[in-house]
C-alpha cells in the first residue's frame, strides 16, 4: 500500500516528495512509514525494486489468454513489455540516475539482468507454445527479437539520441514488423507503413548529423 502510493508521487515530485505527502496518499500516519522502512531512501529503493521487477512483468504476461491467436498474443506481450519499459523510464527520469555502482554492484546487476531475461524469455516462450511451428525462428529467438524490437522502437531515449520525437509505437505495428518485416503485401499494411515512415525519418536524421546521404 505504501509502495503503491509512493510510486505516482515519485513520478510527479521526484526525490523531493515528502513522507507527509506519502502518508496522506497511503492513508496512514507518517510514523507508520518509518516502522516499515528505515528511511525515505529505503522506501524509494523499494519502489524502484518493484518498478524494475521482472516478476511483475512476468505476472502480467501470464494473464494473457492462451486461447487467442498467436498474433493477438504477441501484440499483448508487446503491449505489456512496452508499458513496463516506459513506466520504468519515466520513474528514473523523475528521480534522476542512480549513483555510480561499485564493481561488486555491477556484477550483481549483470547477474540479475541475466536472470530477469531468462525469466521473461521463459514466460514469452510458454505463451508462444505450440504455435512456435508458425515461426521461422525458435521460440527463444522470437522472445529475444520481441523484447529487442519493443525496446528499439519505443524507448524514449533511443529516439532522443537520434534527435527524433517518436511516440510509443502501436504494439500492433511492432508485431507486424516482427512477423512480416518491411515487405509490402496485403497484411496490416497501414501499421507497417506508419512504422516504416518513422524509421525513414530517423535514418534521414542520422544521415544529416553524419554529413552523409540518406539511403
Automatic annotation (TrEMBL):
Which InterPro entries does the UniProt entry name for this protein? Homeodomain-like_sf, HTH-type_TetR-like_transc_reg, HTH_TetR
MF terms per GO, please? DNA-binding transcription factor activity; transcription cis-regulatory region binding
Q: Which residues form the HTH tetR-type domain?
A: 1-55
Residue ranges of the DNA-binding region?
18-37
Which keywords annotate this record? DNA-binding, Transcription, Transcription regulation
Residues forming coiled coils: none
The record's section on Gene3D superfamilies has: Tetracycline Repressor, domain 2 (1.10.357.10)
Pfam families associated with the record: TetR_N
Q: What is this protein called?
A: AcrR family transcriptional regulator
Top-level taxonomy: Bacteria, Bacillati, Actinomycetota, Actinomycetes, Propionibacteriales
